[in-house]
Amino acid sequence: MKRLGLPLIAVVLVAAVLAVQVAAGGAHYVPLRPANPCSPRPVPPIPAQLEPLAEQIVLLGLDSAACRLGISRERLVLALAETHTLDPRQSAALKAGLADAVDRLDREGRLPKVSQLLPQALAQTHLPGIVKTIVEAIPDPVVDNLLPTAPLLRRTVDALDINRLLRELGDPGQLNSALQSAILQAALHQILDSLHP
Amino acid sequence: MGHEAAGRRTPGLQQATVVALSLGVAVVLGDAGVVTLALPEILRDFGAQVWGVAWVLISFNLVLALVAVPAARLCVRGDPAVATASGVLAFAAATTVCAVASSLGVLIAARAAQAAGGALVIVGSLELLVSATGVERAGVRRWATAGVAGAALGPVIGGLLTAAFSWRAIFVVQIPVVLLALPAAIALRGRVKSRRPTLETSPDRPHLLANLALALLSAALTAALFLLVLLLVDGWSRSPAVAALAVTAVPAAALAAGPVFRSVRAGTRSEAIAGSVLIAGGLTGLALLPRADLIWTIAPQVLIGLGLGLSVDSLTAAALRDRIPRALHGGWTIAARHAGVVVGLAILTPIFTADLRHAQTPAEEAIASLVLDAPLPASTKLDLAEQLGRRLSAEQGRVPDLRPAFTAVRVPAAQAPAVAALQRGLDDQLKRAATRAFRTSFLVAAGLALLALGPALALRDRYRS
After folding, report:
1. Domain that holds residue B427
2. Is the bond preceding residue B259 a cis peptide, omega within 30 degrees?
3. Is residue B384 part of a domain?
4. Does residue A138 lie within any of the structural domains?
């Protein structure tokens, strides 16, 4: 019995320590695993401001693009950060992903009206003061009728030069300028299409 | 038994001789792992890679494994006191070179020389301790215990000295301590008459099972000390002093194992089996840490320490019992233990360095995920992402320090809490990745300890007195 006693005590001590560690999550103490980009991610409330809206579209767009490319959203972002240039397949996936994001937010009624975004957008543009005053004078219903948010954003995505945006990620001024240019171009085409159906 | 010296010396002098020789054995065997906690600092000082720095440990243990038996033969043929005194002088000289080494190559070469001198100190001291105590079992027990204490305390003392001064202090401190054994050895010159094989009797064969078990357990214990220290210092960014204090659980438990379990008088075989189970269990516990918190390492370390205290001197005593010449069999135990350490390092270092490299991808993805989902404006996220990317690419193959990335980005006060939370989250992810990277190595080491159960089960059981 003496001969068995010591090994038995050892086994009991080991079992007790390992049981406590496994119960405390010892087997699962690993880095956060990226979520499946093909499973819809919950979307938080979006304030009616340009930056949060753009960020949410980009986040959802990355998920959709990653799903199309068969990789995680995080791997796609790290690859973009490393390369700064995209092959046509990646570029197409990103554009399609951004369009998917706009569609989803539109379906879920989460897109703010353009009239809500306009004051902030005007404040950030370099348009002459007189033009800003004229635009501000346009009644909100007219603005929202001429520029429904979802079609405007889809046109903006179409107009985006993704490679240019990636190159200018480190320069907020250039990035804003590229985005404003795409939005203005999209808005212009939207208005022209409304006037000449 | 031929231990004439003990009878002719005063008890005080005899005690001092035993203490000085035990300290010599402890310092030399402690040297096998004393630089473990200093490795990150040595790595930085010489701008080396992990694999290169591991040779500071490997060279000592490899040479000790190769030289222990020839050194023992030298002791058997000549006077162990002369061999020990020569070993002390050679060890002290090589240690001085280690303390002033100007390059990694010089340090590694001096460590090899240290081991060559140290081998003479260890095997010579076995005969001298038996002679000084006057009782064979007491001398062998003292020698084995000094070895266990040195091996267990080495990394702790090395870590504290590194934290208080520098890694060079480890070697400076050893010189006077090991030199204490010099007068003790000289005092016993010509007085040791150990049992030797005669013309009719050849030397006993080495105790294969006990030495094999010692080799396997030493390989596993390497993981416990070497990998745990690297995890604490490099993976969890703890200071060497904190890591040194944290790993005191191993020597404390090792020294407590005797008084706690020896009263059971279970026998060599049961002690070796229990020790192997405890070491394997402790290493599995280190592979299954639930958080990067020092408190979670204590219980596994206690298991390892208890196993170390139970098995190593029990197996050493089994390897030496009734075998002549004693120094030669002492040499075999040292060769087996340090060959085990080398094999352990050779197996485990490539595994954990590869795992550390592979941990980079999940860590980067976890960092990207937290940054993308952080409740911060996109512009702040972009700034942080740029800085974090620089830190990650600058620290290829090592666990990066992300603090400079956060100090480089200026954010409005309103965003500071979210940025601080993000920083904590990223640190947590890095610690998770580092802890996960060490898991396979700890499990492989646990497997080595379990393999020691084979020879331990085949041992003949003998009660210890």
Report:
1. 360-437
2. no
3. yes
4. yes
Give chain A positions within 8 Å (CB) of B432.
Answer: 29-32
Q: What is the ipTM of this complex?
A: 0.83
User: A2 — contact with chain B (CB < 8 Å)?
Assistant: yes
Q: Judge whether B387 lies within some domain.
A: yes
The whole-angstrom distance between B231's CA and the closest CA on chain A is 14
Classify residue A61: in a domain, yes or no. yes
Q: Is B94 within the bounds of a domain?
A: yes
Counted domains in chain B: 2
Condensed to tens digits (0 to 9), the pLDDT of residues B345-389 reads 888 888 888 888 888 888 888 888 998 888 888 878 888 887 887
Quick check: A137 and B347 in contact, CB under 8 A?
no
How open is the CA angle A188-A189-A193, to the nearest 5 degrees?
120
Helix (H/G/I), strand (E/B), else coil: B165: coil
Among chain A residues, the shortest Cα distance to B296 is held by A21
Least CA distance to A18: which residue of chain B?
B285
Evaluate if residue B131 carries a pLDDT over 80: yes
In terms of Cβ atoms closer than 10 Å to its own Cβ (0-12, 13-18, 19+), residue B331 is buried
Identify the domain containing residue A95 by its residue range: 50-195
pTM across the whole model: 0.81
- Which residues lie below 8 Å from residue B100, measured CB to CB, with a gap of 6+? B168
Asked which of B164, B196, B228 is the last residue of a domain, the reply is B196
Q: Which residues of chain A have pLDDT under 50?
A: none
Amino acid in the structure at residue B72: A
Report chain B residues whose CB lies below 8 A from the CB of A58: 378
> DSSP secondary-structure letter at B322?
T
Chain B interface includes A178 (CB < 8 A) = no
Q: At A196, which amino acid appears? A: H
E-strand stretches of A31-71: none
Alpha helices in B321-458 (DSSP H): 326-358, 360-373, 378-394, 403-408, 416-451, 453-458
Listed residue (A113, A77, A93) closest to A157, CA to CA: A93
Is A31 contained in some domain?
no
Cα–Cα distance for residue pair B209/B315, rounded to 1 Å: 9
> Residue B464 has what pLDDT?
47
Q: How many residues in total does chain A contain?
A: 197
Q: A74-102, pLDDT tens digit by residue? A: 988 888 877 767 788 888 899 899 999 99
3-state secondary structure of B188: coil
The residue among B248, B26, B46 whose CA lies nearest residue B166 is B46
The first and second tokens of residue A80, run together, are 């973009």
Q: How distant is the Cα of B29 from the closest Cα of chain A, in angstroms?
A: 27
User: Under an 8 A CB cutoff, do B436 and A30 touch?
Assistant: yes
Domain assignment present for residue B254? The answer is no
| Beta-strand runs (E) in chain A | none
Distance from CA of B208 to the nearest CA of A (A): 22
Evaluate whether residue A141 is within a structural domain: yes
Q: How many distinct structural domains can be found in chain A?
A: 1
Whether residue B432 and residue A22 make contact (CB cut-off 8 A), yes or no, is no
Q: Cβ of A2 and B264 within 8 Å? A: yes
* Residues 6 or more apart in contact with residue A108 via CB below 8 angstroms: A43
Distance (Å, rounded) from C-alpha B370 to C-alpha B382? 13
